[in-house]
Amino acid sequence: MSKSVLVVHNDFNSAAFAESNAGLKDQIDAVCQALGDLKVKYAVKSIKTIEQLANVLVKNKHQIVFNLVEELPADITHACFVPAVCRSFSRKFTGSDTPALLLAQNKWQAKAILKAAGVPTPDGVFVPVGQKISAKNLTKGYYIVKPAFCDASEGITADSIVSLGGKKMSAAIEKIHSQFDQPAIVEQFILGRELNISVLQCGKKIEVMPVAEIDFSTFKKGMPRIVDYAAKWHADSFEYQNTPRILPAKLPEKIAALIRQYAIGAFKALDCKDYVRVDFRLSEENRLFVIEVNPNPDITPEAGFASAIEAGGINYKKFIKILLKNTGEFKS
Fold first, then answer.
1. How far apart are CA 151 and CA 10, in angstroms?
2. What is the spatial distance between Cα 323 and Cα 253, in angstroms, rounded to a whole number?
3. The predicted structure's pLDDT at residue 15
4. Looking at the structure, do residues 129 and 245 belong to the same domain, yes or no?
5. 62-88: b or e for each residue (b if 16 or more CB lie within 10 Å)?
6. Which residues contact 185 (CB under 8 A, 6 or more apart)?
């Protein structure tokens, strides 16, 4: 491999969610280690704005951009435009393209596209900033209130699970509006199991890895069985320490096959590329629902995606090599 790679990531100065920033540092280290092991020349650059990326590409002539930009402070959508800027400078890039990133980030729009493609998602409503919920089309039961445009479980806590109507639901919506200045999605909470599956594009072939399950068996009665922000990022919390991954998940083959079918359907519906994680809930009646599609998910070696590909027989070094080959710039 004689071509060179520019690893681009967002600046670490945003303190709002310092834990997820620490996760980004781990991703950079892992990717650079793999590139070094592959004898690929590389450099690492951080950006604070999407405009800064243009200057970086002018000064650095690497053929491929390894895109690890998760968020940019000026606007929540700006990170989605990294591929478009790379394309304008005739650079290849890893991960999904701008349209897919924008669609996946807008979780309400993504839900509509998935449903149109025959991929089931929970029912819900969209609540713009400053507005109250209109619950006339919702049925009694539990709901999860989450930001419309955030990733990495940002904005999701145990208080995000509420009953229809009442002060707790209104408070959860208002918290999203005030903390994130973005709309809230109030979505039916599916009681049951939480599953996810990692999808990897290998050239023209889309491969699915073994299904993983989050184990909530040590959660006390009444504790919401969700992967909230604490479970994902607060290493000293009960939630973090008691949500181990079961890989592969113990499922009837009929259910596992349907998960694979829906995951590939979601990958294609949003026109994703390279690598994606699809999150599911499996109801107590064995009905599947896609709750999120995550293009360019966390690829730290300890994270779910890396664990899943390892279980699928693909080590980290091979994974990085596959991404480089997908760009068309590397032939071996």
1. 15
2. 29
3. 41
4. no
5. bbbbbbbbbbbeeebbbbbbbbbbbee
6. 107, 108, 124, 125, 126, 127, 145, 146, 147, 148
Among 217, 187, 185, 213, which residue's Cα sits nearest to residue 307?
213
Tell me, yes or no, whether 244 and 305 share the same domain. yes
Domain that holds residue 204: 103-121+191-326
Is the domain of 135 the same as that of 200?
no
Query: 144: closest CA among 120, 127, 119?
Result: 127
Q: What CATH code is carried by the domain that includes residue 233?
A: 3.30.470.20
Q: What is the pLDDT of residue 2?
A: 59
Average pLDDT estimate for 267-275: 98
pLDDT in tens, 202-253: 999 999 999 999 999 999 998 999 999 999 888 899 999 999 999 999 999 9
**Beta strands 4-10 and 41-47: pairing type?**
parallel
Per-residue model confidence (pLDDT) at position 23: 78
Q: Is 292 found in the same domain as 215?
A: yes
89 and 72 inside one domain: yes
Contacts of 296 (CB under 8 A, 6+ apart): 67, 95, 96, 101, 274, 275, 276
Structure tokens at 137: 């089309």
Name, in order, each residue with C-beta under 8 angstroms of 123's C-beta and a sequence gap of 6 or more. 138, 139, 187, 188
Element (H, E) at 113: helix 107-116
The residue among 188, 203, 235 that closes a domain is 188
